[in-house]
Amino acid sequence: MLVLLRKVGEAIVIGGEVVVSVARVARSRVYLTIEAPANVRVDRREIRLAKNREHRGAGLSEAVGRKTRLGETGQS
């Protein structure tokens, strides 16, 4: 893990295309701006984790369904 200190108005660049800037600090909150190409997904971590859990659950259901269908037809 990399830890960087930035002041309001300062930024970091990730992968040459994503720029994260500190817009404001108020009380215990840090406000960030993120500039990224349209094809780069930007989510809060808790949202990404929830999406991943949903996709894994859906994928598991689909895989179980495929296995059951394959077993019923005798194909492999």
Describe it for me?
By secondary structure, this protein is of the alpha+beta class. It has 2 domains: 1-40, no CATH class; 43-76. The protein contains 1 helix and 3 strands; from the N terminus they run βββα. The chain has a 3-stranded antiparallel β-sheet, with no helix packed on it. The longest helix is centred in the last third of the chain and has 29 residues, at 45-73. It is extended and about 45 Å long.
Question: Could you give a quick summary of the protein structure above?
Answer:
With 76 residues, this protein is of the alpha+beta class.
Comma- or semicolon-separated keywords:
about 80 residues, alpha+beta, 2 domains, 3-stranded antiparallel sheet, 1 helix, about 40% helix, extended
Summed up, the helix count is: 1
- DSSP strand content: 25-35%
Q: Report on the biggest sheet.
A: 3 strands, antiparallel
Low-confidence stretches: none
Supply the helix-strand structural class.
Answer: alpha+beta
End-to-end CA span: 44 Å
Strand order of the largest sheet: 1-2-3
Question: What is the gyration radius calculated from CA atoms?
Answer: 21 Å
Q: Given the C-alpha coordinates, what overall shape results?
A: extended
Percent helix? 25-40%
Order of helices and strands: EEEH
Tally the beta strands. Answer: 3
Q: How many discrete domains? A: 2
Mean pLDDT: 84
What's the layout of helices and strands?
Elements: E1 11-14, E2 18-26, E3 29-35, H1 45-73
Antiparallel strand pairs: 1-2, 2-3
